[in-house]
């Protein structure tokens, strides 16, 4: 009987330590919604290309005008906003159900760790945009996002790093297939997020 109570106490202590050191309320559904947003956005961009007379799958290196680049940036920002909003809503809901605070010292450490490579990547992509090196933007976003996920893993679910590894590898591969950034971007931010989100939702629901 005492042995059973001892095991229960250890389990409780381990659970408390996990909650205090890691943000464990990350919702798999937020990943699914973010992925779907990226897929919808990529499909919309494809039709924007069609509207501009650009045949994305003809295998030719496409040249984008300033107005089209601005439109693509706006679309990207809208997708990012939708992903962040859905992430907050689903994660806040999960935290509430578990009786956990969504904003604490662990959350702050998570956001700082996640933001450093992400902000650095953002400035890097702005530099690419400034120098009209558009074909490198998709690979760069995938690589820096993957690095951010791997960095943030120490403060959240361990599984996040595996998504990060996939994003990094996909970004590196896309460097050898310049001009196909939209396709790699949709796979990385869309398909991988949906698959990851469904797995996490089933594993941690």
From TrEMBL:
The chain crosses the membrane at residues 23-49, 69-90, 110-130, 136-157, 169-199. It comes from the Bacteria. Keywords: Membrane, Transmembrane, Transmembrane helix. This is Uncharacterized protein. The keyword Transmembrane applies. It comes from Chryseobacterium tagetis.
């Amino acid at each position: 009987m005492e042995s059973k109570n001892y095991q229960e106490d250890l389990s409780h202590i381990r659970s408390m330590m996990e909650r205090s050191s890691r943000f464990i309320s990350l919702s798999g559904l937020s990943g699914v919604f973010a992925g779907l947003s990226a897929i919808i956005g990529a499909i919309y961009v494809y039709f924007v290309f069609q509207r501009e007379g650009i045949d994305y799958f003809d295998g030719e290196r496409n040249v984008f005008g300033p107005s089209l680049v601005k439109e693509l940036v706006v679309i990207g920002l809208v997708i990012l906003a939708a992903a962040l909003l859905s992430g907050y809503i689903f994660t806040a809901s999960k935290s509430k159900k578990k009786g956990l605070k969504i904003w604490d010292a662990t959350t702050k450490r998570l956001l700082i760790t996640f933001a450093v490579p992400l902000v650095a990547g953002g400035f890097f992509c702005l530099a690419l945009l400034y120098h009209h090196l558009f074909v490198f933007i998709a690979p760069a976003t995938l690589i820096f996002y993957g690095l951010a996920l791997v960095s943030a893993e120490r403060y959240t679910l361990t599984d996040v790093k595996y998504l990060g590894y996939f994003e990094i590898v996909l970004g590196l591969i896309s460097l050898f297939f310049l001009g196909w950034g939209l396709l790699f971007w949709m796979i990385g931010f869309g398909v991988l997020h949906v698959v990851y989100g469904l797995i996490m939702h089933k594993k941690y629901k």
